[in-house]
C-alpha cells in the first residue's frame, strides 16, 4: 500500500503502524535528536552545566504531592534562581528533575511526548508501572553522558487509577527503578529533606498538611545544603508544588504556595530548626 502524499514529503515510516514508543520511533528516524545522542569530549563535563537540586514527594490518602526548590547551580555559582524542576508528565503523573538541568529538561519533554504518543497509538493511557518503566529506559539511554558528569536522576510520582492511590518512584543513573513508600527525595539536599520528613510525615495527612510537610522538608534541605534554594522572600520566589489525585493533577497557584511558605518562615522565626515531633 502506498503511503498517502501529504505534500510535506514525509517518509512512508511516518504513516506505517509500528511501536507505541515515541523514543523508539525517534531512534530509528532521527537518532541525533535524542538527548543521549550528544557526543562529548573525554573528561568530566559536570561543572560546565547548571544542575538542578532537591525534589521531594509524599503520598497522602487520595493522592500524592511533589515539590521542588528553584535554584540551579554551576559549581559554586548560582546559575538560576527560578528554574522549574517539577513538570506534569501527563494528566495523572508528574516528574521532578535533579542533575544536569539542560539534559533533564530535554528528557522530561521526550517523556511527555512518549506518554502522549502511546495514548494516541493505543487509545488508552499507559499504566503507572508502564510510565515508570518508560522513564527508566530514557535514563538508561543517558548512561554515557552520566559517566561524564552529566547525570539525570528524576523523581516520578502520580495517581494510580487501578490501585486508587498515589505512588512514588525513584531511579539511579543506570535506569534502575525503585518504588518508594510514603515519601522520598532526590538531589543534593535529599538527605536533609528525607530526615525532616521522617519526623513530620503522618499517614493521615490531608492534602494541605502534606503540602506543608514537603515545604518544611525543602526548607530544612536549604538550611543545610548550599545548592538548594530556600524561599526567596525578597524576589517572591517559592517552590513549585504539584498535587495529583483521582481528579487529575494540578500545579498549586504561586500565591497559595507563597502563603504557606510565609507561614513556614514565620514559624521558623520562633523555632529556627522547625516544628518538633513527639518522642513516642
How far do the termini sit from each other? 72 Å
User: How would you name the CATH homologous superfamily?
Assistant: Aminohydrolase, N-terminal nucleophile (Ntn) domain
Which residues form runs of ≥5 with pLDDT under 50? 1-5
Would you report the number of β strands? Answer: 14
CATH topology: Glutamine Phosphoribosylpyrophosphate, subunit 1, domain 1
Architecture (CATH level 2) name: 4-Layer Sandwich
Order of helices and strands: HEEEEEEEEHHHEEEEHHEEH
Cα gyration radius (Å): 20 Å
| Helical segment count | 7
Structural class: alpha+beta
Shape: globular
Average of pLDDT:
88
* Proportion of residues in helical segments: 25-40%
Strand residue content: 15-25%
Strands of the widest sheet, in order across it, are 12-2-3-13-14
Outline the biggest β-sheet. 5 strands, antiparallel
CATH class: Alpha Beta
Describe this structure in words.
By secondary structure, the chain is an alpha+beta fold. It has a single domain, classed as Aminohydrolase, N-terminal nucleophile (Ntn) domain (Glutamine Phosphoribosylpyrophosphate, subunit 1, domain 1, 4-Layer Sandwich), CATH 3.60.20.10. The protein contains seven helices and 14 strands. The strands form three sheets. The protein has a five-stranded antiparallel beta sheet, covered by helices on one side. A five-stranded antiparallel beta sheet has the order 6-7-9-10-11. A hairpin with a 4-residue loop joins strand 9 and strand 10 (165-171). Helix 2 (101-122) packs across helix 3 and helix 5 (190-200) crosses helix 6. Mean pLDDT is 88; it is low at 1-5.
